[in-house]
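Re: export button greyed out
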Amino acid sequence: MQQIAGGVCAPKGFLAGAAMAEIKKAGKYDVGLIVSEVEAAVAGVFTTNRVKAAPVIYSKKVVEGGRAKGIVLNSGNANACTGEQGMADCLAMGQAAASVLGTGAELVAVASTGVIGVEMPMDKVLPGVKKAGEALSTQGAHAVALAMMTTDTFAKETAVEISLAGHQVRIGGVAKGSGMIHPNMATMLGFITTDARIDAGVLQEALQEAAAESFNMITVDGDTSTNDTLLILANGLAGNSPPVTGSDDLRQFKAALSQVCRELAKMIARDGEGATKFLEVEVGGAGSLGDARQAARGIAGSSLAKAAFYGEDANWGRIICALGYSIETFDPDRVDIFLGELQVSKAGAGLPFSEEEAKEILSRKDIKVRVELNLGDFRATAWGCDLSHEYVTINGSYRT
Amino acid sequence: MQQIAGGVCAPKGFLAGAAMAEIKKAGKYDVGLIVSEVEAAVAGVFTTNRVKAAPVIYSKKVVEGGRAKGIVLNSGNANACTGEQGMADCLAMGQAAASVLGTGAELVAVASTGVIGVEMPMDKVLPGVKKAGEALSTQGAHAVALAMMTTDTFAKETAVEISLAGHQVRIGGVAKGSGMIHPNMATMLGFITTDARIDAGVLQEALQEAAAESFNMITVDGDTSTNDTLLILANGLAGNSPPVTGSDDLRQFKAALSQVCRELAKMIARDGEGATKFLEVEVGGAGSLGDARQAARGIAGSSLAKAAFYGEDANWGRIICALGYSIETFDPDRVDIFLGELQVSKAGAGLPFSEEEAKEILSRKDIKVRVELNLGDFRATAWGCDLSHEYVTINGSYRT
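Workaround output, generated via the alternate export path:
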């Protein structure tokens, strides 16, 4: 597997384009299109929040159809809690994109991100879709990454190349997300393209598996959004034979897809609102994969642990406390805890450690926490960030 | 029901005393005793965190015995994650108190609060218990309230008087808590005294019911502590006939006990670490009591909603978003949301409202959020606080 440039335009036959429609501030990209030159298989996972934005409801139907030609998106407005008008606006946005692409609206997924509960400014959105269509090119991936950003401080793109039975297959991805990040099925917004030929059902299964260990393993603030959407388009232009269940080809494809999802997810955690540190929490020796994942994400999500990391305070008591309310099956008296390479707790009790060494580790920008339950063979990693003064500042005045 | 003074010493036959043992900073009370002159029925609820502090494990056994004569407590050290030494220290603390009271250690509950994972300074704790014993009096309630405090900014006491079939019955209570507050079965530390005569089994049931709608309905930071303990001692000196299941007397006693628990719980939420505002979240029209409670606590616990209240930003989208990930059974298109007396959302969509009026409501110190699901007849209230810069400051350097 090889890391390559190009983001969502890296795979054969994908174009992207963006426009500045002034849904956000003037001078910022806020409408984007990701398009396959030929009809593609589509798969998707969506927010589990009971309150779903109009584009989530709409794009689920597109995914049910199994085929798509493109994705139209905007930032600055989430089109959530906008009632019937929101559904009509979402349909109009899909139709505008379909008309640009010369295809049917049932082949265009829609995604929105931004403030909740405000009607879409369609007088800006519709011309924006048209302009984004005019900008479509194989060089447009980065502009689309910018068009997805809200409180994000950097664009999030990645791409890899693998070889499937002699065919060069590429997977590219783009994502956004910084706050309201505690995905359950998907992230805020993530779009993956691939030129692999693959059946939509197999693609859906591969996407779910990849999401489970990537986007579903990050947390910024414990708030699961109304708009989380992860979509993949597979247009088949690589010319490979579709990988079948159980094959080595499928295993390779899944590994590459997971890699792309994991890279994007980690970028979101790193760019968490107000974050000054990136946290990686690994939990090993768990009795089940579910427990390992839940424990890792529980620790990564603890407000108290996150505030302690911000303050560079080696308060490992908060780590074991978060472990204790996250899962049931473990023995507190067998838990070992490491901050970076420094063991701070053994068999559930404190070890004497050098405060200076701890301080040095906690002063780093990337901090690794490792917890060993010494119970079973399962292991999982979650990613998050610290809780800073800046998080409070950003979220005290997001809307106004 | 009448509000009275005196805290845990208000009921007949209860003494309290505290000492400054320098477990915390010099000049602060940090060891306390609450004692009944005669043996009392005891009931208790404890943290559901899988990691339990030594005093939680110890006091559970005392409660199983059904009888107790007193409670010994300290702040400054939680005696959690301290292994076998922690259990031995806890036992020594109970025995020291029992010897002061001239009773057996099996009749003395122990409670600790403070930093996790550090061994108890027994050279300070044991003399402290002796000094607290020397200070025992009917005027000692406030000193004990002070001795329980960690990051609390004020002492939390209350008491009420009711009449049970001609007998004057009093219930007094004291609590502490400010951070690591997301109780599940109990609060950080809460102690209730009553001179009512009541069977230990009935008392346990009454305490669980009261905790469910008081301590279990507050949240500061979503972190369930390792030390949560709520105990009640009922010494029978009021001379009433023990109220039996289904009786009007029991109904009255439960109402008074719930009132005491609710007042203490609200004080904890009001004193949440770094809090600048007190939040009351009422959810009505729910399909079940469990849903109403879970939804109210979910909204009160959302970091994003809490930060918006701190910033006085009428971002109701975060309220409905938190509702959506907290419960399953409701129709987003029937949800009405009120900030104070101002309706901001109707049938799941935004209402035009005056930003000025919203700003006036959100500038208050006490903010009420009301959410109507318009589905069923169940209703619950949760209490919390905003998420401020000061919360991050406090928790970035709690241990050091």
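Chain B has two domains: 2-270, 278-396. The button fix ships in the next patch.
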